[in-house]
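Quick one: structure tokens for this chain, please?
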Amino acid sequence: MSVNEHPDPGQSPPPDPETLPAGWRRALGSPLMAEFRAALRLRDDMSLRASVIDDLSTYYHCSEAECIERSVHWGRYFDEEWAAAVSPEAFHRTTTSSSFSLLWYAYCQAEGYVWPGVVGIAESVLTAAPAAGEHLDFAAAVGVTSQLFARMGFRTTLADISTTMLDFARFRLERRGTAASFIDLNESALPVGAFDVITASDVLWLVPDFDATMRELYGALKPGGVLAANIAPGGASTAPWELQHDEMSLRRRLQAVGFEPVGRVTGVYRKVHAEGAMRSYRRVRDLMLLNQWRYAYRSARSKLRGLRR
């Protein structure tokens, strides 16, 4: 299967749980996964697959076969839209191929065919945030993260630059009776100090101005609020829409804005004061960690050279 394709759970054998990492198995068996699956279903008597296809076929007026084709072979349609767009901003505002790709990807997560990232984010948030409150799904796309957080008891808001995906998300949530607010980022800024939790999944390496985006998310959080985000793509990529790659640099820049990692929880950061003693502490700590990393790198390189001789 190409990296520009999704698996088709209807045509592929189910994954063997024994071959999956422990965290993956735990997520699949967690109560939050049951809530995620329930959120994706249109009705209790409908399967996940039928619900996903019904969402897409009803909104985009296409057949079941076309929905599956556009969802599984998403890369072909994505590349065509990207090539035809007059700018990256225009692509993100008007994309429809992303709706097929991202909703199908959520379906694959719920069936265990890919890493269940939405449930993983929710589990991480619950270690550092209240069990309910105000949630912002930044770059909400088709709205699946907001659906889960709504079922967790949060009051959820979806924000996106993509008008087309925001409209599709509104359609999906309304037909399930899920209460939510919506912010079109082309027209409105994020409210200041409004949210207990912000999730930003698979998006921060796409933004042209990382620092400005971090400042906006920092401002939108309440004091002590948390941001759950992966800030750089995994592995090497040369895709033209991926604008940020240096994860170490991005983490330092995120902390310079005023976010601090929450313990050992991966990808969760708490809003702290950006100025004063805390900022000075972070600078000293980051310098020490950087020097430790450099020492470890040089030691490993020296040992490797010794083995080659």
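The mean pLDDT is 85.
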